Write the structure tokens for this entry.
Amino acid sequence: MTVRVRFAPSPTGMFHVGGARSALQNWIFAKQQDGVFVLRIEDTDAARNKPEWTEGILAALEWIGIARGSYEGPYFQSSYATEHRAAASRLHEAGRAYYCDCTREAVQARTGSAHTGYDGFCRDRNLGPGAGRALRFRTPDEGATVVVDLIRGEPTFENRLIEDFVIARSDGSPVFLLANVVDDMTMGITHVVRAEEHLPNTPKQQLLWEALGVKPPVWAHVPVVVNEKRQKLSKRRDKVALEAYRDEGYLADAMRNYLMLLGWAPAGDREIVPWPAIEEEFRLEGVNPSSAFFDEKKLRAFNGEYIRALPVADFIAACQPWLTGTATIAPPPWQPDEFDAEAFAAVAPLAQTRIAVLSEIVPNVDFLFLDSPLIDEGAWAKAMKEGAGDLLDAVIAAFTAVPSWDADSTKSTLEAVGAEHGLKLGKAQAPVRVAVTGRRVGLPLFESLEVLGRERTLARLQAARLRLP
Ligand code: GLU
């Protein structure tokens, strides 16, 4: 038997990091089993689907290493409407489903509660199809449905507690629960690896598999992803879109490494693990069933480590979308012709050790490419205390006279000027840094001055001096 798994997202919004995690788990499992990964877009909710969400899913999958052409599909659930309807009819013909014209209000009036579910009123009324009649599955009165789940053991559901649930609406259209099962059957899926949120659907779906005469798949419900308050990650509250992380400058390798740690840990004390080793070591059976905390701070730290591990040339290449403005977030503040690739290459190794996400490259280097720096007024107020004007006058004179313009000379020069003003180097640096870069923190100052050059450094110091009393 060939293992066939599927990833079945609904294109109703940005691509969720939890979805990306499930996709990767399916992907690795298929690979390990010499199996097939199927991508199915569950696009039957016409009101909420948009083609651009589907495009977004395909692009995001590609970004984390699940490339078009290397999987089966994408199939679209909407193309299988005939199969969905045929399955509903078969269940009806076999007596496993019946038509029901009860309104919610009528059920409530009989049961006295909005929560007990359907009471089986139409089970033996033998209604035919017709307006206002939904098709309900006749769940067994006895016995139990045992779900074989690679992560959760054998969750067991008593059949008498499963209501006769709707499988097709009164307009004849099958509901998601059935469509999802029929597609899995049609596509020969052997293992359903999906989020824990779907576990309550699973006994119903397994009953449908059995009623349609096909051996149910093996299930694996991977843990729900939560925020620091242990709330399920929600797109309204939390940053959940994989695209948002990509656009901010997370590296795909860091992202997919981190995503795989949501519910699983490699042996030993390792967390940063090269992808080929993850592909080898990951075990679906080893996934922890309890909820997994998506820790953005930790992900940032991870990303920083991945950035630092890049060869400098790769780092420079990886920064390009933010430097050129092709990344979808805000373009850089300089004009394309102001960018100087050589100057950037000179400071790139300094920046590489300091940034956690690639988009942070822009505020670290913008002073190199702009005619005058973007002054952060808060930083200015803090750095330009009383006496800053005198200090800058002295620095301008000393920098004009320094024989060779390099980091060591400007450093010792500023050290000496600072000492004359009773300032340690750190204190003397602050006004110079703000005057030259506009900010209080950034790349090492003296290397920056070396790359910027004497003339531009002096011009900025003079401009700052003019603003001071
Ligand atoms: N389309 C469903 C979702 O987006 C997936 C259901 C499944 O994996 O069985 O949650």
Summary: The radius of gyration is 31 Å. Residues 8-10, 42, 180, 194, 198 surround glutamic acid (CB under 6 Å).
